[in-house]
Structures are given as C-alpha cells and as structure tokens.
Design goal:
alpha+beta; 53% helix; single chain; FAST_Leu-rich; signal; transit peptide; FAST_2
Length: 464
Amino acid sequence: SQISQVWNAPLVQLLRSLPALGLAQGGRPTRSVEQEVLWRLRRLPLRQLVHLAEFLAGQGHDGLLLPEVLRKLELRWTELEGTRTVVTLMAKVGHLSPTLMERLEDKALELAEQFDLDELRRVALALALQQRRCVPLLRALSYHLLQKPAELPLPVLTDLLFAYSKLSFQQPQVLHRLSLELQPHVGTLSPAQVSRCARSFASLRWLSRPLAEAIAQYSLDNTQKLSITQLCGILMSFARLNFQPSSSEEFFSMVHEQLQGQEQQLDTHLLTDVVWSLCVLQQARPSHLRQVLAPEFWACLQGDTSPRAQSSWLKLLHINATARLEAPGYQGPFLPPEALRGHGDKDKDKEKASPLQRGLREVLLGALGGPDLFRHSVSTVYGWDIDAEVVLDSDNKPLPVRDFTAPHLPHAEGTKPLPPGARRVAVLRWEFPQFSSRGRELLGWGSMARRHLQAAGFLLAEVS
C-alpha cells in the first residue's frame, strides 16, 4: 500500500532485486512492483529506462512492462548519450524491437568515432547476431577500427571476423589487418576457433597464404584434437579458396588417414562436400569416388528439391566429371546417363542474365553472323554451364554447332562427327564473386570447371 511513496530509483532497484529475493515473476509482490513501475514509465529518467530494459530482456520477461519500456525508448532515443548505453542496448535489447534497433544504428553511426575496441566488437557482433547488414555503420566501424594503432586483442579479432563473415561484408583493409594480426595467435586457438576462422575467411573469399599455411600446420600439429567435422571445415575452406599448403603431401596424407573409416559419421551432404573439396584440390582417391557415386548413396537426393539437396547433387555431377576426366584408373561406378540431365536452370532467359552475359551474347551474334553458329547457356553433363559454345574448322571459321555430335550435352542434337582439325571452343564468363577478394585468382569452383572443360576437349575463351 505504501509502494507509491517509494522514489523512482529505489523502485527500479527493487524490481531488479526481486529475483535475488526468491520472489516468483508472476507472484503478487512482483506484479505490484511491476504495475507501479508501469505507471511511472513516463517520468523515469532515460538512464533508469535503459537499466530496466537491460534487466527485463535478460530475465526473458513476457509481461506488459518490457514492451512499454521498449516503446518509451523508441520515442526517446534522441536523448541517448554515451557509447556504453548505445552499445548495451544494441547488444541486449535491440533484437526485441527492430524500430529501436534502427534508431540505435543511427546513434551508433553518430558515436562511432568514440567507440573503443571492445565497443566496436560488441556493435559488430550485435549486427551479425541479428542479421542486420547496416552498410553505413559497418563502413564507419571499419574506418575507425583501422585508425586504432594498438594491436587488436584476440577476442576482437575472432568476433569481428565472425561478424564480417556472417554479414558477408568485405572490407579489404580490415580483412588484411585481421589476417595479419590473427596469424601469430593461431597456435593458441582451440580447434573449434581455428575451424571457424578458416570457414569465415573462406566465406569472405579472402586468402591470406601465411595464415592459411599456419592453419594447415596447426592441423598437422593438433590432429588428435581436431574432430572430424572441424577437419572437414578446414578442408572445405581450403577448397573454396583453391589453396594448396606448402606441406601438401603431408597435409593430405593426414586428411586421408583421419577420414579413413570415419565416413559413416558424416551425413550425405557433408560427405559430398568433403569429396567435392578433395576433387577441387585434386586429392580424391578412387575409394572416395566409389563411395559417393554408388547408387545407394545418392538415391536419397533424387527428387529432393531443397536448396541443400540441389547443391549436393550439382557437386555429385562435378565428382562424376572428376571420375570421368581426371581419374584414369577409376573403373566405376558412375552416375547413370539419365541422372546427368536437367541440372541447369530451366529459366535462363535474358531477364536473368547479367549485363556481361547479355553483352557477350550480342557480341557473339554480331561477330559470328547468325544464331545457328553458337549455343549459349549450355548445361553440360559435367555439371558446368558454358556461356557460349562455338565449333571452328581448321581455318578458324565457325560451323553450325547443332549439326555435330556433342557428348558433353545431356540430350543429343547433331549426328555428324567433328571434321578433321575442328575444335570446340567454350566461352566462359567469370564475374567478381568467382574470384578471391584479394586479386584475380579463381576460387576452387572456377578452377575445377576450367580443368574439367579442358580435359573434355574444349579450348577456353575466358571473359571477365
């Protein structure tokens, strides 16, 4: 009955102390205090609203009080001062109110210059965990991070790398600094941290060779500590970046030894990813090919239209192409002909084509003189798409491409064999996402496509 006489600050402190006193959230004393706080919300100073929001969010409060506190913060966000308050709200409360989070992002952009290293880390982490790719704020965080002269602490390095990877935000100077300063710490990281760092750099398409060498050496030095999934994560990261360690023979011998007998622990998709990665790095053994190309292995993927299954099926086509084109001693099994059809996108029309792709078609049409002299958007049995295919005779004159047999197509078209001296030319278009972020090196995917098509007898004309 006397609770209305309690001042604001002690009242808020009382509410925060109730759990420590053993009073249940739905009990009468708690409800009474919450109701009094609810009535006074408009009169509470902003600082007490912030403390209240932080406490209620941490308690998982599901009553009327927390939504009202958030609403008041949404209305009074211009009163926010100090980096600590903004960072705390972003990290602990922002996920509960998208409107408030937008306001906090604006305030963080205003205060970014004042953030210390830990606050930069916490803001980036809050954005990543909430999947909020606020590019202006990320650019500001990157700029002010690069102005910090001190060496970055390990938690800042790992959390920023995670955040940039989660948000697919590539900032070359930041990634260079993260990789440079992370390298000396690799030996002190846990296996989970090493695997996570490798995957993060791979998702950002950032290859730092000294860091990748350090991760490869860590894997050799800590083989018994790495779980099979962690080792697979490192292997898949190397394949994405098309990275071969300097100790390649020793590293892959270790990988094969660790994988032997452990394949049953891996689900269909992960095992497909692992064998595909070995194919990219030209380290797949016949036993690996046999395992994933056996009908009992891939039968579960047929008819599954989920994105994960479609990705795994495409990788099986690449593995099958490796078995056909790069494994001369391999005797089978292979994927049956009917399984090689229809991997391509049926809707490859001009509306979905990139500007480079549309320009390429127009140039070829003008240069060759007619649409019957080239194919475009060709889906091959190897799992790779060719932007354009041309057949040239011995004098480098184009021939009607549909007149000739085409073993690379899932459906036969022409019946004539290629004339003596004639060659097939595949026009391949490489765009920015197919290169590493550091330069003009193709990622593992593109490198394997290039090898397979050359092995299938194509001359390559590459456009980027």
